[in-house]
Structure formats: C-alpha cells, structure tokens
From TrEMBL:
Protein name: Cellulose synthase catalytic subunit [UDP-forming]
CDD domains hit by this protein: CESA_CelA_like
Cofactor: Mg(2+)
Function: Catalytic subunit of cellulose synthase. It polymerizes uridine 5'-diphosphate glucose to cellulose.
Taxonomic superkingdom: Bacteria
First and last residue of the signal peptide: none
Residues spanning the membrane: 147-166, 172-188, 195-213, 225-250, 529-547, 553-573, 594-617, 637-656, 663-687
Origin species: Chromobacterium indicum
Gene name of the record: bcsA
Length: 863
C-alpha cells in the first residue's frame, strides 16, 4: 500500500475531514447547490464547485481530495447520475455509490412491503399507542429490575462524560464547541417542562467540569511560590463552587410537589396533638396571635392541647396563659436553649404528635388538616414540614425596597430546595411550622442538643433510623422576619455554625442508615454554609494580579474568555431556568457578600472545635426609630471596597504602562473588580437601615367587612390591609364619609358562620379610604380578630402564579442599579466636606447623580 510522506496510507490522507478553514466555503457551496440544483450532471456541479475551491482538481478520474468526495456524496443524494449506467463506467466511484444507493432504496421498499403485510395480519401488535406503551413498559422494567442495565448506562454516561471533559481542544475547537452547545441550550430553553431543565443541567455540568479540568491542568503557574499559592487558593475556591453547583443540581433536579393526604371522615380516628410554642425573651404582643391561632385550629377540642414553653419564666406570660386557658410549662434548669426547652415539655406531655411553632409564627386554622393525613397512612412517617413565610419585610426587602419584586432570601429554600429534598426523602426539620411523631422523636433522644441547629440535626438522626419525612409546599403559617441587618447576620451565623458542627460531628457521608440521595442532600445543606472563605477569595482574587502581578489564572485573555465565560453563562442560565421563580440571578452572590465576612470565623472554629458555640435567640418584633447607617457592620465592606478601588487604580496604571500582551489580562481583571465593587455597593445599601416604627406589621388583603357608624348606619366595605392594631378600609365607590378624628366606630367581620364586632377609632379618612385603630379589645375580641384575619385557611395562598424572572439580565440590572447608586451616595458623602467650600460644584455633583439609576424610594411608615 502506498504511503504518504507523513507515514499514513494514501487513502487515509484522501479521506481526512475537511480542514476547519474549508468548512465555511463548503457550507456556502452546499447551500448554493441545494437552492439551484444543476441538471447537467457532474460537470455542472464541478463547474460551480471551482468557484469556491479553485485549488481542487475535479477532473481527475479518482477522488484526490475530501472536498471532491463530500461533493460527490451530496450530488448522488440530490440528483440521479445519468452517466453511472453507461457501459464502460462500471468501475467508477459514482457508479458504486449509485449502486449502493439503489440497493438501500430497494431494501427500504421491501421493508415497507413486509411491514404493511405484518400490520394487515396483526393490527393490534402495530397499534402505535399500544406499541409505545409496550416499549416504555419493557424499558422501565429493564431499568428498575436490572441493576446491570442501570450500571451499564451509568458507566457509559460516565465514560462519555470523562471523554467530553478531558479531551484537549485548541482555541478554535473550544469556540466551536461552546457556540454549538450554546445554540442547543437556547433552543432547549424555549421548551417548557422539567425534562429540558435536566438537559440544561447536563450542558452546564459538562461546561463547568471542563472548565475545572482546564483550570487544574493548564492554568497553574508554578514558576514562583507567590504565583503557585495564589493560583491554588483561587482553584480551591472554584472547586468548592463547582461541588456546590453539582450538589445543587442533584438536590433540586426534580420537584416532588407532594399532595395533601386527606384525613378519615370519622374524626374519632384523628390522633391527639400537643402544640408547643417556645418563648424566651420575645414580647407578649408577638406571642398572643400565635397562641390565639393555635387554639383556633380545626381539630377536635379534646385532642388539641396548646402549651407555652416559657424559658424566660416571666409573670406576664404565666398570667396570659392562665387567662387564655392554655398550658404553661417552665423548667428549673435552662440547659440547651430551645432544644432543652422542647425536650423538657416532651417529658410532661403525652400526645401522639407534636406541632411546634416559633412564638411569632401564626398558624392557619387548616394547618393540622393539611399535615396530619400522611401520618395515618404511613407509620414510618416521622416529620411533616411546611414553609416558613414572613409577612414583614426582612432587611434586604426593607432597605432595598424589593418587596413583591425580588423573592426574599428564604423563598429558594422553601420553594424549591425542600421540595427537591422531598424527592429523596431528605426534607428536614426547620424548627417551626412542623409536626413530628412523638415515638420517632423519642427514639433519637428528643430534639438534638449537640449542635446549635437542633432542628436539622434531629431530622438527620431520624432519617438514620429509617424514618421518613414529608414536605407540604403550602404556606400554613406566617411570622416576623428579622428587623435589622445585624439581627439577620446573627441568625445566619448560628445557622452556619450549627451546620458546620453537624458536618464535623455527625457527617452525613459517614455512618449508616442514609441513602445516597439523603447523604448528598444533607451534604449540600452543610456545604452551603461554608461559602465564607470562597466568597472572600472571589472578592479579592483579581487584586493578586493588579496589585502584586501574581497570576492566579496563568492563561491568555482569549483562553479566559473561551473557558470562564461559558462556565458562567451556562451555570447562570441553568440556575435561572430552575430557580427563576424563587430567586433572581446574581442575588445569591449578594447574600453571600453580605454574610461572608461574618460566617467565616464561626464556621472555621466549628469545624476545628465542634463543641464550642452557644444558641442565640433571634430578636423579633423590634422597631427602627430613624434612618441610619449601621457603621459597625459595614466595616468589612468598606475595607474590601477600598481594596478593590485600589485595584482599579493599579489596573489602569498597568494597562497604560505595562506590556502590550498583558492588556487583555488587565481588562479581564478590571471587569472582575468592577463586578465585586457593585456587589459591595449593594451590601452597603443593605446596611443603611431605614425607618420602621410600626409595631404591628400590616398585611395587604381584601376582606369583606361592615362599618358601623355612631348614628347606627352600616356600610359594607372591604379591607386594604390589616394588623393586630388596626385596619385600612375602602368604602364603596361614590361614598364619602365626613367623620371626626378619633370617632368611635365598629368593624364587624364574619368567620365560621359567626359575626364578630370589633370596637375601633378613626385615625384618618380621605377619598373613600379610612384608617382605624382597635381599642379596648378583650381576649375574646383579639382571638376573633386573629381567626378572621391571620388564621384564615387561605390567608397566605398566592392569588397568582409565581412570575419567572425570564432572563438573568434582570438580576444583573438590579446589581448595577442598586450597587451603582449606593456607591454614588457614598462618594457624595466623602466629597461633601470639599464641595461645601465651593458651592458651584454642588450642581455638578447633583447632575451626575441624576444620570445613575435611582435608588429605591425610602420606606416610610407610621404607627
């Protein structure tokens, strides 16, 4: 066999693939031939081909170039070669290809004839619906009944994945790979349903894993210790983010969306329930609505017992429990905080099930109806958890004014993550708004006391013993969010410390009793709270190059664009598809930036010394008297902001004076620093505490009520909002009442077939809108108010479907709008001492500020 100069056989050279440079021209040639097909045979085709490939000799009797081979294949597939049947040409290349083509056509004809004959003789066997069902049944049987089939599929998928990730590409091939995959992803993204979401997840995993492989094998600079250390630190942070990404995909890949199990029609079969409401130092006004709502839950009176677990041992709580007719439980030794308080109550009560509510979480009347049915169907069901919903604004919603526009921090966990956990039987206890089986709880020694996140640790112990859990994604209780950023940070520090303690002392990947899915779900919950150090690394990594010229990623700027950008685009796209209803894109990085500095030390200490740390109670029910900046909590943000601004200055200097081949790297790092600066700007905006002096938070709702005037007249109207302290009412159109301020009025509401009259006073009246404040309510009146408002079964049901963010660009715009405006206000504050001396500059500063997007309006409220 004749060989070429390179050692390959001549046919190997002739049949090689098209060179990448020839592909665009060949595509244009095929497009031209498909639009206008020449009718004069091969000569016409070759004449047109010479216009695109003048270097190819199309007149040779045998093919000598892959362009000729591919062109002949296209010709044979479109036109019938007129000269292939001529005598003396039987040995030509077109003849044999044409002969194969006719043989395949004949075989296809016979296949159709045989198929028609079989379908006529056996019509039932060829019914398309029945055939599809049979094939699916066989496939499902083979998949679930044969471990070998599953193992072979997993092994084949793993081998293909490894090949896809580790195959080296040059820059051209990497660009083609990325563009093709991106076009497929954009097409798949338009298809509704969960299966396209899984396809996008696979695309994201492939691209991100390929990026990590490229980072680990091709971008570490070991020519000096500073370069090596800086590169390894950033790579470690990226490995953490990649692992969390994979675990998050696994955890939230499919939402179970469990339905409510109905209760038996005979109420005598319903079990007894103890309701525990732990309290330590929270105000009595916060506790009252929860107790009233718990007492009003639809359950047989003899089988429902409400208990206040007072760990503060206050006389006013004892007196209230006596007046309300509920149980009051205290203990002598106050060990293990909330967990010890509940465990003590378990020892003095005896109901088969225990419902637990934080003192600020107000349950609806239908809570037990929607959660208890599963326990009667499954004896191994130990826990039913419902979402935590907050009717007051958290610090992000209040200080950034995003209520109703941007989902709050907890919606992702309770809207998607817990529903995904439920698929793997891994939904865990969240400390409130849940029902637990007493037998299962006592089998693990009660509520866990080894860590400060006693709730998640308790469910982990029950899962290890083979008990099951369930998550009902239906809001059945609502409570108060933290009032200030400092309280919010303190609460998250406790959560982070507790998860790190569990990871260290009772690691879900070790020990017996858990399935692989449960291990991964618990691992992701614990790994999530270790983001402190990685986030700080991401906020400072570009400074290594800009300030010290250390290469954290030793690669050209084009390589960074071809690998880093696809990794970010695909991860953002897939997460937006999965979580767009529950979290805006890029907002997860905002939350991490705000908390990273404060959870780094507690989580590190908990990993090294898991026995340290104590439970801290989250303050609820407070007020913010006036606008102010919490400078004590902003110190880390200011330091990081100053470092990033210093990096901008050095970056501009390096771009101006440095070598030309580093300009691209400088630009990439400057873009990174700019993004970090905007994130820090949003963190500073959250730390600006806005005035909030309303003691009772209003809930917007439209409820029918009747307004009784002092002269005996009654007008039907509806509520605009309500709270424990008052209401805003809207009168019928065209009706305007002229009433004096503090006029004595009565509002009547119906609940459970009864009408309740509530005395109140007029605060103001304008344009058909009245604001009233309740006065002189008795305990019975307060209970009736809670029953008619907060305790309604549909109190927290959404009136419309959740709106998907649509595109991640909305989240990016939020970061630019809020971060940019916050930085501008900080600049004005810093420049104020200098501009006061020169009044002519004030107009210039104001004009520049007007060009930036406006910061959300300040939240103003009144008592």
């Amino acid at each position: 066999m004749k060989r070429s100069a390179a050692g390959w056989p001549e046919w190997g050279v002739r049949l090689r693939l098209l060179h990448p440079a020839d592909a665009p021209r060949f595509a244009l040639l095929l497009l031209s031939l498909f639009i206008v097909t020449p009718s004069r045979g091969w000569a016409a085709w070759s004449d047109r081909a010479r216009q695109y490939f003048p270097q190819v000799d199309f007149s040779r009797p045998r093919p000598g170039d892959p362009v000729r081979i591919l062109l002949q294949l296209a010709w044979l597939s479109l036109v019938k070669p007129p000269f292939a049947r001529r005598a003396g040409r039987t040995g030509s290349w077109p003849y044999w290809l044409g002969l194969c083509r006719r043989a395949l056509a004949a075989a296809a004809g016979w296949r159709r004839r045989v198929g028609f004959w079989l379908e006529a003789r056996f019509p039932q066997a060829f019914d398309p619906v029945r055939l599809r069902v049979s094939v699916e049944g066989v496939a499902e049987h083979a998949w679930w009944r044969s471990a070998a089939v599953r193992a072979a599929c997993y092994l084949a998928a793993a081998l293909l994945g490894v090949m896809l990730v580790t195959t080296p590409f040059d820059e051209y091939s990497q660009a083609v790979f990325t563009v093709v995959l991106l076009l497929l992803a954009l097409w798949v993204k338009r298809i509704p349903g969960p299966v396209p979401t899984l396809i996008l997840m696979v695309f994201s995993i492939a691209v991100s894993t390929r990026y990590i492989w490229w980072r680990a094998t091709s971008t570490i600079n070991d020519d000096s210790w500073p370069n090596l250390i800086a590169g390894l630190i950033l790579l470690s942070a990226e490995l953490y983010a990649w692992l969390v990404l994979l675990l998050g995909f696994f955890q939230s890949s499919w939402m179970l969306e469990r339905e409510v199990v109905p209760l038996p029609a005979d109420a005598a079969l319903w079990p007894s329930v103890d309701v525990f409401i732990p309290i330590y130092n929270e105000p009595l006004r916060v506790l009252k609505p929860t107790v009233f709502a718990a007492m009003s839950m639809d359950w047989p009176p003899g089988k429902l017992r409400v208990h206040i677990l007072d760990d503060g041992t206050r006389d006013e709580i004892r007196e209230f429990a006596k007046q309300a007719g509920v149980g009051y439980i205290v203990r002598r030794e106050h060990k293990h905080a909330k967990a010890g308080n509940i465990n003590h109550a378990l020892g003095v009560t005896d109901a088969s099930f225990v419902a637990i509510f934080d003192c600020d979480h107000i349950p609806t009347r239908s809570f037990l109806h929607n959660t208890m049915g599963g326990f009667l169907k499954d004896d191994k069901l130990a826990l039913v958890q419902t979402p935590h919903h907050f009717f007051s604004d958290d610090p992000f919603e209040r200080n950034l004014d995003t209520r109703g526009e941007v989902p709050n921090e907890g919606e992702l966990f309770y809207g998607r993550v817990q529903d995904g956990n439920d698929l793997w039987n891994a939904s865990f206890f969240c400390g409130s708004c849940a029902v637990l089986r007493r037998e299962a709880l006592l089998s693990v020694g009660g509520i866990a006391v080894e860590t400060v996140t006693e709730d998640a640790h308790t469910s982990l112990k029950m899962h290890r013993r083979g008990y099951r859990s369930a998550y009902i994604n239906m809001v059945q209780a609502a409570g108060l969010a933290t009032e200030s950023l400092s309280a919010h940070v303190g609460q998250r520090i406790r959560w982070a410390r507790g998860m790190a303690q569990i990871f260290r002392s009772d690691n879900p990947m070790l020990g017996r009793g858990l399935t692989l899915g449960q291990r991964f779900c618990y691992l992701n919950a614990m790994m999530h709270f270790l983001y402190g150090i990685p986030r700080l690394v991401f906020l400072t990594a570009p400074l290594a190059f800009l300030l010290f010229h250390a290469y954290t990623i030793y690669a050209p700027a084009l390589g960074l664009v071809l690998y880093v950008v696809p990794h970010m685009v695909f991860s953002v796209m897939s997460n937006s598809r999965m979580h767009g209803e529950f979290r805006r894109s890029f907002w997860g990085e905002v939350y991490e930036t705000v908390l990273a500095w404060y959870i780094t030390l507690p989580t590190t200490v908990a990993l090294l010394f898991p026995g340290l740390g104590k439970f801290n109670v989250t303050a609820k029910g407070g007020v913010v008297e006036e606008d102010h900046v919490d400078w004590s909590i902003t110190k880390p943000y200011l330091v990081l902001l100053a470092l990033n601004l210093l990096g901008v200055g050095f970056g501009v200097y390096r771009a101006w004076t440095g070598p030309a081949d580093e300009v691209g790297t400088v630009v990439v790092n400057l873009c990174w620093v700019a993004y970090n600066t905007l994130l820090l700007g949003v963190a500073l905006a959250v730390a600006r505490e806005l005035r909030q002096v309303r003691v009772s938070h209003r809930v917007q709702s439209r409820l029918p009520v009747s307004l009784h005037l002092p002269d005996g007249k009654v007008y039907p109207c509806h509520t605009l909002d309500y709270s424990e302290g008052g209401m805003a009412l809207a009168l019928p159109e065209g009706l305007h009442l002229r009433l004096k301020q503090n006029a004595e009025l009565t509002v009547s509401m119906r609940c459970g077939g009864r009408s309740h009259a509530l005395p109140c006073r007029l605060v103001f009246s304008k344009d058909g809108r009245l604001s009233v404040r309740f006065v002189g309510l008795s305990l019975e009146d307060e209970m009736a108010l809670v029953q008619c408002t907060f305790g309604r079964p549909d109190a927290w049901q959404r009136t419309a479907e959740r709106e998907h963010e649509g595109t991640p660009l909305g989240g990016a715009w939020d970061i630019w709008r809020m971060g940019g405006r916050s930085l501008w206000q900080l600049l004005l504050q810093a420049a104020l001492p200098f501009t006061v001396r020169s009044g002519r500059w004030m107009g210039f500063w104001s004009w520049l500020g007007s060009l930036l997007p406006r910061q959300p309006h300040i939240y103003r409220d009144s008592k």
